[in-house]
């Protein structure tokens, strides 16, 4: 299932517009803050799909019965661009366990693009709700590689893939390679074009560089 939250008239689109704006996005702190706020919105929407149980809460004046999460999810982000988005998800799912993956596209000299994965750290994910996030979903290759690396360590009950801006090619790629019963995609916007170097257009640029500064190339 795909949830495109950008199709709704909400403040989410204001935050995404500021991520895209070439003037506003120069303010790194604001860029990170907008990613965090978008993560909070996604967390709230995802929470509507989860399982709840009835619990009694003792107040100073009595007892109140409330429906609370039956189980807290695992949040896993793809370094480094997803860190602010992760923080937003975690600020709502504040009891969640957390994992981190280093997976990125390597542009080879012959023009090909390979996926390099240097680091995977995750808590137990077997039969748990997993939230896997990355702000940009261009081809879907890094996301699929990250998902498969996690599944090698344990099979989640269900995976929520969260991204701010996606290209349709990446969505099609994930649907082709992951069973529809295994994941739900949460996206803020779907853009129309993908360059030969796999950059989304109009997109917003390099989310990692905009959040944390330019990196050295190797």
Fold blueprint:
Layout: E1 2-4, H1 11-20, H2 28-47, E2 52-59, E3 62-69, E4 74-79, H3 83-92, E5 97-107, E6 113-121, E7 129-133, E8 136-137, H4 141-151, E9 158-167, H5 168-177, E10 183-191, E11 193-194, E12 200-201, H6 207-212
Parallel strand pairs: 1-10, 4-5, 4-7, 7-9, 8-9, 9-10
Antiparallel strand pairs: 2-3, 5-6, 11-12
Helix pairs in contact: 1-2, 2-3
The shape is globular
Radius of gyration: 18 Å
User: What's the mean pLDDT score?
Assistant: 93
CATH class, please?
Alpha Beta
What does it look like?
With 218 residues, the chain is of the alpha/beta class. It has helices at residues 11-20, 28-47, 83-92, 141-151, 168-177, 207-212; strands at residues 2-4, 52-59, 62-69, 74-79, 97-107, 113-121, 129-133, 136-137, 158-167, 183-191, 193-194, 200-201. The protein is built from 6 helices and 12 strands. The strands form 3 sheets. Strands 1, 4, 5, 6, 7, 8, 9 and 10 form an 8-stranded mixed beta sheet that branches. A two-stranded antiparallel sheet has the order 2-3. It has a two-stranded antiparallel sheet with strand order 11-12. Helix 2 packs across helix 3 (83-92). The longest helix has 20 residues, at 28-47. The N and C termini lie far apart (37 Å). The mean pLDDT is 93.
List keywords for this structure.
218 residues, alpha/beta, Rossmann fold, 8-stranded mixed β-sheet, two-stranded antiparallel ribbon, 12 strands, 34% strand
